[in-house]
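EI: anyone free to look at a 214-residue chain?
SC: sure, send it
EI:
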Amino acid sequence: MNKIIVLIGAPGAGKGTQARLLEERRGIPQISTGDMFREMRTLDTPLAREVQAIMAAGTLVPDDVTYRMVQDRTSKPDTDGTYVLDGYPRTAVQAKQLEELAKEQGKEILAIEVDVPKDELMKRLTGRRSCPVCGEIYNIYSKPPKVEGRCDDHPDAELLHRADDTEEKVKVRLETYDELTKPLLEFYLGSGRLKKVDGTGEIEDIYSSLEEIV
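SC: here you go
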């Protein structure tokens, strides 16, 4: 039976990377809510206009509108088989809405958490640096540049540290994530559909664990 794979992971857990690998290697489409919202900005449909008005007002997009976006995107031919949802559902309410969609589409839901300890996430996020020229990402803890603060390929380029990658802001982001995601994890755990992969190893090892489950 075809599946809807729900990838769950904190900021910095690397779930986006794993979703891309599943798409590249297994042909499983990655459906990202971030991509959907970006697309909505450029479309001229009743749903897109509704989303644009909500975003322009600076308010949160309600669950039912997000659900309709997911419904709309996953009705396209590329999602006839198994697909990966990246960034949805975020709450237990959205998870219940997704149950309806799975029934409509005749698919089963498989939830996978990419599990990374908080101190490791903190290092990954606060240690990130990027080159303004080529976009290469470094990490002062796990992937430092040859010369401190400079890109290996563009030595004149000073590496950038994102304003929201400070310890205080990362701490808030991780706490908010925990708060929102706990009910979601409990929902899938309660229905016996939650699997976990260790997200602390090499990208290839994490992918192998993920592929075994999928």
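EI: The mean pLDDT is 94.
SC: 👍
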